[in-house]
Amino acid sequence: MHKTALAIRHVHFEDLGIFGAVLSDAGYSVHYHDLDAAPFATIDPLEPDLLIVLGGPVGVYESDAYPYLAEESSLLAARLAAGRPTLGICLGAQQIAKALGAAVRPMGHKEIGFGPLTLTDAGRAGPLRHLEGVPVLHWHGDAFHIPAGAEGLASTPLCATQGFSVGRHTLALQFHPEVDVAAGIERWLTGHAAELAGAGIDPRVLRGQAARIGPELREAGQRMLAEWLQAVP
């Protein structure tokens, strides 16, 4: 059966990565909506079978400077109220949390690099179990609260809220399981060069970690998404 997946992309190098092949295998035709393509008001919030909101280097509270954030939040609010399948990653997850009435704030520190998740009982019972013990890529300075009615899925020492789900239709992940680090992360290292320098992080360290972790992370991330898609109503 033909299904449609719409991915909102805020910066070009933060794309679907390894998730693209999984979506194709699951029967989805994938389309990107880039920021300058058309206003979010032109998107029917209920039309895509799956909506994916990807990451980006801005905060959900910066809508005065970046008005599209408020439009995106309204789009998500309408979709989530209808219980339509929705996946958010990093900024996308924060936007889902905001649309569901939860606070999103700066943590006061950066979490950038590879590290394992500590899964909750709900996390171990669902598709995130494939990531247990596997260092995943973190790249953020903000964090969301878990919305009312959602289940928290994971944490790290630097961020207590790494993911949540709402029923079987909504999954929000603070970390980045979609990045194909096995293929290299030069686009990320270059695109976020100023942030890395400001945080005192050596890109050579991240590059070396990506080379070691990449193949295992690719397999685990693809299994995670495939299992979640199988359960999506």
From TrEMBL:
SUPFAM superfamilies: Class I glutamine amidotransferase-like. Keywords: Glutamine amidotransferase, Plasmid, Transferase. Transmembrane segments: none annotated. GO terms for cellular component: cytosol. PROSITE patterns: GATASE_TYPE_1. Gene3D superfamilies: 3.40.50.880. GO terms for molecular function: transferase activity. Residues 24-181 form the Glutamine amidotransferase domain. It comes from the Bacteria. NCBIfam families: PRK07053.1. This is Glutamine amidotransferase. It comes from Azospirillum brasilense.
